[in-house]
Design a protein that fits this description.
Helices cover 39% and strands 13% of the residues. With 399 residues, it is of the alpha/beta class.
Length: 399
């Protein structure tokens, strides 16, 4: 069975809440149009195609997931450095000002971290975004859901994505002792509140990052998730790179953008090694062919024979012609605007200093766009397994 893609969530959202589904469809529709549109640069208002914005609210997290590009084995946001960076977080009022500026565009908002529940004003921010008329989703490790369950349901949050990587023992080896049970308690608390408050919101989904530590345990997790009353389960095939790609990417960024790439090395973890593509495909096919009571989605949705290649031939693109610099942006915890969350070394500007529109149409933004289209397939060397490219890039023939 062919895996469903990320657009499969839209009908589910309409069923849960028509208005929420309409907001999400509005964003997806604009993203879809951007894929076939001509790429523009200077002298063009790029806000015309702007559809999706990420808020990376904090560098702090209460877990240390092994494969994480921020706090994992090779992550760049650790210890004292993360604590110092946390002093720079954007205050709520600045975010509100940005939401007001973007209200006419009704972009889709995606809030993450670090762990977003460690941002002190998360609930107030979500409430403000949703009242502005936009769709809002929150990606969390789920360990703090129980504490905030009552307000989450009361404020009718649209969507919560919870990271969970395997059944209890394997998950806790990856994400930390006790993390699995804390997530389960969070789901239980949300479901109790939904029943108590007679609400169908928030919609809830799980995101699982596939590594060589969990790919043999995915079906056990799929079965366990039947009890969580979730709406979908996304299997992220993972972001991986190697020494050769990192070196090539760093050289390109030095030459074209004049900066030293700092984040890509964090994905050079080796957690793709020894994944048996045929076995993984067989597992995913079983999952997609089974009715667990929720949608199962794989990102990217690959042709079966290409699964092994995805993990063991990292220099071969499966998606290209990334549309992110023409449709999206990430706001880093310190207010820096970037197109890609993993290219923090090249900020386009800062929302504490300039309007978003000025930044998005600015000289640095267009320099980044020009640099990208000069690359083969219009993606940077380091973007070959990028999650955003897997979501929004053009599917290459045969993949």
């Amino acid at each position: 069975m062919k895996p469903k893609n990320n657009f499969s969530v839209v009908p589910k959202l309409f069923k849960l809440n028509f208005k929420m589904g309409e907001r999400m469809l509005h964003g997806f529709w604009n993203l879809g149009k951007a894929i076939v549109k001509k790429r523009h640069f200077e002298g063009y208002d790029h806000m015309k195609n702007f559809s999706l914005i990420y808020f990376k609210l904090t560098p702090l997290c209460n877990l240390r997931c092994k494969m994480c590009g921020q706090r994992g084995d090779k992550g760049y946001l650790k210890g004292d450095y993360a604590a110092e960076e946390a002093k720079k977080i954007v205050p709520l009022e600045t975010y509100k000002k940005l939401v007001d500026e973007l209200k006419y565009k009704r972009p889709v908002y995606y809030l993450w971290g670090g762990e977003p529940f460690l941002y002190p004003d998360l609930c107030d921010l979500v409430d403000y975004i949703q009242k502005s008329g936009s769709f809002c989703s929150v990606n969390t490790n789920g360990t703090l859901l129980e504490k905030y369950a009552e307000r989450i349901v009361r404020d009718k949050w649209h969507v919560i994505f919870v990271s969970l990587d395997a059944f209890r023992e394997v998950n806790d080896d990856i994400r930390g002792p006790g993390s699995y049970d804390r997530v389960v308690k969070g789901f239980e608390a949300i479901n109790r509140e939904k029943e108590k408050q007679h609400s169908r919101l928030p919609a809830m989904g799980i995101v699982t990052t596939v590594t060589n530590k969990n790919y043999k345990d995915l079906q056990n997790l799929a079965i366990a998730c039947k009890d969580f009353n979730i709406d979908w389960h996304i299997y992220n095939l993972g972001t991986y790179t190697n020494d050769e790609i990192v070196a090539k990417h760093k050289e390109f960024f030095r030459e074209k953008l004049g900066v030293e790439s700092v984040c890509l090395e964090a994905y050079n973890t080796g957690y793709n090694n020894d994944i048996d593509g045929a076995e993984l495909h067989k597992t995913l096919n079983t999952i997609h062919s089974t009715d667990y009571g929720y949608l199962s989605i794989t990102v990217p949705a690959l042709n079966p024979e290409k699964t092994h290649e995805y993990y063991h031939q990292l220099d071969i693109p499966v998606r290209d012609h990334c549309i992110v610099p023409w449709t999206q942006a990430n706001i880093n915890y310190n207010g820096d605007v970037t197109f890609c969350a993993d290219y923090v070394e090249y900020p386009l500007g800062n929302i504490k200093e300039k309007s978003f529109k000025e930044i998005y149409n600015g000289e640095r933004a267009n320099k980044f766009r020009h640099a990208m289209v000069e690359c083969p397939g219009a993606i940077f060397p380091g973007c070959i397994r990028c999650y955003q490219n897997m979501l929004f890039g053009k599917k290459r023939k045969g993949y």
